[in-house]
Amino acid sequence: MNFESIINRHIQEETKNISNAIGKCNEAMVYYQILKANPITTQVDPEEYQDMLKKYSPVISHEDLITLHKASKVTLKRLNEYLSDKYGQYKIDSIQLVPDNYLKDRLDNSDLELILFVDNQYIEEAFSLKAISKKTAKITAKNPGIGKILGPQYFDIGSLSSIVEEVQEKFAKNLINHQQSLIEVSAELGEKLITSNQTKLRKGVQALLGKSTLIVTFYNQNHSIVLQHGNVKSEVFVSKQYPSPIQTTLYWNEKQEELSLRVKFSAGQKKGWSSLKLACEYKLNF
C-alpha cells in the first residue's frame, strides 16, 4: 500500500496518546512532501515514513489526517524558501527520519535530516518538526530534573540542591504542603536566573530547545514557519513566578518567543514527596 492509499483508506481505531500521534504523522507527511518534490533523492530507510504513518494514523481522526496532509504542502514551501534564502542553488541528495535522536546528543533534537549538495559540497541540515493545532498553542520542550537545570548541561550558574533539601525537610515536618514546596523552589529558580548574565541565559535556552532548526506546522490554520530558535541573539528577559507562582518565564526576540519553566513533582501527591522536575513549554507570540 502506497502513502496516498494509507491516507485515503484511513479509519480512526484508537483515541490514546493523540499529541504524540499528531507529531509522528506530521513527520511522515513532511517527509513525503519532500520526497514527492524530489523523487530521485536517496532514502536512508525507504519504508520508515510509511511505517510511521501506518502506526500512528489509526490514533487520530480522519479530519486531522487530511488537515495535516494539506498543511504539509505549505510546510514544504516554507522549507524550500528557507533553504533557498540560505544557500541559493541546492540539491537534496538524501533524506532521513531520525526519531529520538536527542538521546545520542542532548542538544540534537532533530526529527529530519537532509544532506544537501551545494557548490560541489555536501552539507547536513537537521530539522525539528512540530505540529500544533493553532498559533496560540504551546510546544513541549525538554523536562529536566530540578537538580540539573542550573548545572553545566543547561544554564551553568550553580545548583538548587540547598533549597530543595531545605524545602523537603520542611515538607517532611508538615510545615508546608506540596503547592507551597513548589512555590518556594520556583521562587529560588527565578531569583537565580534573574541574577544570571546573558551568556548563561542564552546557553540555557538553547540547551532546553535544542540546536536544530525548528519547523512548526499550525495544521488547523494551514500555516507553517521556520525558526532558528536555538541561536538566541537578542536579550533574554526573566519573569520570576510568572504567569503563576510555580513558573519562571524567559522571553527573547522582542518577546515573540518565550519559554516557561514550571516546577512539578515527578509523582502524584498521594506518594508524598517525590523528585522535582521542570515542565518546559515553548510558545510563539505573533
Structure description:
β6 (about 215-220) and β7 form a beta hairpin. Helices cover about 35% and strands about 25% of the residues. The chain contains 7 helices and 11 strands. Strands 1-2-3-4-6-7 form a 6-stranded mixed sheet. It has 2 domains: about 5-130, no CATH class; about 140-215 and about 230-285, no CATH class. It is an alpha+beta fold. It has helices spanning about 5-10, 20-35, 50-55, 60-85, 160-170, 180-195, 200-210; strands at about 40-45, 90-95, 110-120, 120-130, 140, 215-220, 225, 235-240, 245-250, 255-265, 275-285. α2 (about 20-35) runs antiparallel to α3 (about 50-55), α2 (about 20-35) packs across α4 and α5 packs antiparallel against α6. It is globular and about 65 Å long. The model has no long low-confidence stretch (mean pLDDT about 90).
